[in-house]
# Entry
Amino acid sequence: MTNIRFGIDIDGTVTCPTSLLPHINEAFKCNLQLSDIKEYDLTKAFPVNEIEFYEWFKKSEATIYATSPIQPDAHAVLSAWKEKYELYFISARGENVMDVTLNWFKEQELLYDHIELIGTHNKIETARKHGIHVFFEDKHDNAVEINEELKIPVLLFNTPYNQQAAPKGVIRVNNWIEANNWIEKEFALSLHK
# Structure
């Protein structure tokens, strides 16, 4: 075991980026698909009052998080990494859903070294505090800011809502297999230089 730490976002990175859509579609009587979500702010994707949406989300978030499907191959890749790296899950979720989050990890049989729910999208200080070496994220501005501020590679999981240009240190991946390939090839090589 090395002391290499990975900082890993949860929603849209470990969980499927479509996790919210069935809940939104049912609550707001619409038919959103992932391809309709062009911005991280979901209220831009369909006609909805922002206050009404955020009130609904606060009431529904525990159910949404408890039922979020895991991304394909995430379990296998993260389980293999747990043998070699320290896994620090850093999420914008609030502490109010810590029990739901821990239950979800248990149900998914996902191992971890640390889970921190910081209640904000600003993950820079948390990543710095824990000495993160590589970050995994789906929110474009988070990925860019973490990369530029901490000078660490950030793997950005490709979605329709994060298509803006990114600096060289933000590496786009389409899935967990591609993330693993990058870690095994590029990152592992850099450790041996």
In short: The beta strands are 5-8, 86-91, 114-117, 134-137, 154-157, 170-173. Residues 43 and 50 are 6 Å apart (CA to CA).
